[in-house]
User: Fold this.
Amino acid sequence: MLKIKKLNLPDFLSPWLDRFYEPLEMDLLQILAHNPLKKNQIKTLLEKNHTLKEEYDFDLFLERALKRGVIKRLDDQRIEPENFHTRYDFWALFEGWKDIPVEIKDKLNHWELNDYIESHAQTAQDLKAGKQRDPYKVCPEYVLLNEVEALFKKIPKFYLWPCNCRAMIGNCAKPKYTCIRFSDDKGIGWEISREKALDIVKDANKNGLMQNAELGLDKHGRVTGALCNCCSDCCFPHQLSEKLNVQKYWPISRYLAQPPTQDCIKCGKCVKRCPFGIISQEKNIKEKKRLVPVINAEQCRGCGVCATGCPEGAIKMEQIGKSLFETAYHHTGKNN
Assistant:
């Protein structure tokens, strides 16, 4: 077991570390166990320990370890071990499950979800209690499909990533390559155009995924974060909301679906598309016809998936709150 406090490794993972770290990476982490070091110091110690072979390109090895979430570079260019949550995130996204047993996979997902819940519980509870949102702290909020283009106009760069929630939890068969991030510090994601990003979001919505914007303001007051296309089966924010009973606040609910208008043809597509099962439809037994669907407004999150799936446009969304990207000008001046 790597006894390195900064790694935050779960004890049950001890027999499986070789699935996450290569031998030279383990030697690297042991060298960095007590203090961050500069690149030349690391190379000297690896050579002294006879673990760095002549055929290894040290610079490439170090950059690969940075990308894989094994280590991180500090502002002063020294290097230290990366928290295992980061390593696990990269591993689940890009390296697959290899031969990890199902029970270890489940433990890892439980461990990761608990960390997510503990990290965000106070903010979610504060929002439920009516406290004002901190615009410089990233929070999830539902955005409607027709709002995404306006949001994307404020974002200069787009990077496609797999969805880490579905890559880890795997409770559904929804598309995985749907996460649109607005920055890519490690150079891992695929840079795509604004038009391509919009197409991915539209396709995700067709597949019944909700648009969840993880938004905050950076130190310059510019909108940052990501646009996630979420399901209710795997998504960490939705699992947090159920566990802490903060369904309207994490992600933040900004809309309410209105009862179907007279244009409703009673097809029932909205019932099937609602990710939370809060739209019901009864039958008139005598006439053997379906009635107009009923939306439980008290439980509606305002994701808008029912409205985009209605072939007649019979479901309208009533806005009840502003998005951070709509109010960003008040904080920052004009964004790019």
About this structure: The domain at 5-100 is CATH 1.10.10 (Arc Repressor Mutant, subunit A).
